């Protein structure tokens, strides 16, 4: 029993790593994607539109397989599975986050830009000091949704053999002819997402000082 | 140039602006002199707001010329380079109909942010300027408040203070009382009266005929993107010469908004 729990703890660490690294890379990457998608320049917009279309239009599980196996079939290059998982998750989630950012940015009234312009703010100051802080407040609930989904999606890493929590639980379950490990995994995801929800609620509350 | 040879604060010549096929400003020429209050009146959709927005470069003019304190920012339909444009536009302050305060900043920071980021003032000096202006606007106790905690009239006073904090040469008002409940318009008109008494140069697009008549030095009626009549405010509103001015003012007195 302790051995099983130990293994599951290790698996949960892998899940947490996938989760954290994906957020670390995807959250910032989504910003240029969102801005590019709003660009007036079609040459900038078109490839980004296609990227978002593909990322949202195909299963994540397929994207994981593609990211890992495509370099092998094309160049006979193989690389670390864990890295492949993080890359696949990052490019997939960046597309979703970008759409959330875009919605948030476009919801900022034009008057904010106009007031900033009349007051002489540079475009960079206008975006980073006036627009973006207001965007963050607006997109927190939608972002929480996506982050919660990410916690559960980490289970897909097992597609290319990364021993994350759910894979470990399934293995243990098969060995012991028992569903207990899978149930324990379920509790882990639940607790993890409880923490995520709580963290987002706190951030929302911290930004409640203005409307 | 005005009569006494001083440089006009704003000088507009043959200004035109079209949105596609729609001609909003046809061919406008006028000047704003140092220390005067110019009221711009006219029916909805006449181009009054677009005129202010063209002067402040929120809209791109289609043709004509604009000079601010002697600096040409628009010369026969061609805009000056970015640096010239930017420094000249800083001499203008614009107060919007719906305030456009920054909701995530406190009242104080609404007033200090541009001073620090745009004018490069030190934080202490910016704060001093802001506090003095808030006091002048009767908002001394509201420095730490956020815009959402203020009434419409208070918001508009903060917006006026925010514009004044950058020491503009002229303040432009785009229907500053139109978004306010009727009982709140008085406090804003009072602020404008006070600024007029200090000889602040102002251009006010307004539907408040009583205010235009009593406070403005000059009034200008715009209709269909053209200046229909221009003259001393009291005279223009009390004894309009032009038939269209008469018709416009008549509609106003009947709807009881004067």
Structural summary, described in words:
- The complex is a heterodimer of chains A (211) and B (258).
- With 211 residues, chain A is mainly alpha-helical.
- Chain A has one domain (2-206): MetI-like (MetI-like fold, Orthogonal Bundle).
- Chain A has helices spanning 2-37, 42-57, 60-75, 81-106, 110-118, 123-153, 165-176, 180-206.
- In chain A, helix 4 (81-106) crosses helix 6, helix 5 (110-118) packs antiparallel against helix 6 (123-153) and helix 7 (165-176) packs antiparallel against helix 8.
- The radius of gyration of chain A is 20 Å and the shape is flat.
- The model of chain A has no long low-confidence stretch (mean pLDDT 95).
- With 258 residues, chain B is an alpha/beta fold.
- Chain B has a domain at 102-167.
- Chain B has nine helices and eleven strands.
- Chain B has a six-stranded mixed sheet with strand order 7-8-9-3-10-11, sandwiched between helices. A five-stranded antiparallel sheet of chain B has the order 2-1-4-5-6.
- In chain B, a hairpin with a 2-residue loop joins strand 10 and strand 11 (226-232).
- Chain B is globular and about 50 Å long.
- Chain B starts with 9 loop residues before the first strand and ends with a helix.
- Classes of the chains: A mainly alpha (211), B alpha/beta (258).
- At the A-B interface, helix 5 and helix 6 of A face strand 7 and helix 3 of B.
Index terms:
heterodimer; A: 211 residues; mainly alpha; MetI-like fold; 8 helices; 82% helix; B: 258 residues; alpha/beta; six-stranded mixed beta sheet; 37% helix; 25% strand
């Amino acid at each position: 029993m302790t051995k099983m729990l130990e293994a599951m703890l290790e698996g949960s660490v892998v899940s947490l790593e996938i989760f954290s690294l994906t957020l670390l890379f995807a959250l910032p990457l989504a910003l240029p994607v969102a801005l590019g998608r709003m660009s007036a320049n079609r040459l900038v917009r078109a490839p980004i539109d296609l990227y978002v279309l593909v990322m949202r239009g195909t299963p994540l599980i397929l994207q994981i397989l593609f990211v890992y196996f495509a370099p092998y079939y094309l160049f006979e290059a193989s690389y670390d599975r864990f890295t492949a998982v993080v890359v696949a998750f990052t490019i997939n989630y960046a597309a979703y986050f970008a759409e959330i950012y875009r919605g948030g940015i476009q919801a900022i009234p034009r008057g904010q830009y106009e007031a900033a312009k009349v007051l002489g703010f540079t475009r960079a100051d206008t975006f980073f000091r006036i627009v973006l802080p207001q965007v963050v407040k607006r997109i927190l609930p939608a972002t929480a949704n996506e982050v919660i989904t990410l916690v559960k999606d980490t289970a897909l890493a097992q597609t290319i053999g990364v021993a994350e929590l759910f894979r470990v639980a399934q293995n243990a379950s098969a060995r012991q002819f028992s569903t207990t490990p899978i149930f324990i995994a379920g509790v882990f995801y639940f607790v993890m997402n409880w923490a995520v929800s709580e963290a987002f609620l706190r951030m929302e509350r911290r930004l409640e000082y203005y409307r | 140039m005005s009569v006494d040879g001083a440089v006009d604060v704003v000088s507009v010549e043959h200004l035109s602006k079209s949105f596609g096929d729609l001609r909003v400003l046809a061919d406008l020429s006028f000047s704003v002199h140092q220390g005067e209050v110019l009221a711009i009146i006219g029916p909805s959709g006449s181009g009054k707001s677009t005129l202010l927005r063209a002067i402040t470069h929120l809209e791109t003019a289609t043709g004509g010329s604009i000079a601010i304190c002697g600096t040409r920012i628009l010369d026969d339909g061609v805009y000056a380079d970015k640096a010239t444009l930017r420094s000249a536009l800083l001499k203008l302050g614009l107060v919007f109909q719906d305030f456009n305060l920054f909701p995530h900043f406190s009242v104080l920071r609404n007033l200090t942010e541009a001073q620090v980021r745009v004018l490069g003032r030190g934080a202490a000096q910016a704060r001093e300027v802001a506090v003095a202006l808030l006091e002048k606007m009767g908002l001394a106790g509201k420095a730490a408040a956020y815009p959402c905690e203020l009434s419409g009239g208070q918001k508009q006073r903060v917006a006026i203070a925010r514009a004044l904090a950058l020491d503009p040469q002229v303040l432009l008002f785009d229907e500053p009382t139109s978004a306010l409940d009727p009982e709140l318009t008085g406090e804003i008109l009072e602020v404008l009266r006070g600024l007029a008494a200090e000889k602040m140069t102002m251009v006010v697009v307004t539907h408040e005929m009583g205010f235009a008549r009593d406070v403005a030095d000059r009034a200008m009626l715009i209709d269909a993107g053209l200046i229909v009549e221009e003259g001393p405010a009291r005279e223009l509103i009390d004894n309009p010469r032009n038939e269209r001015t008469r018709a416009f003012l008549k509609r106003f007195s009947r709807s009881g908004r004067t």
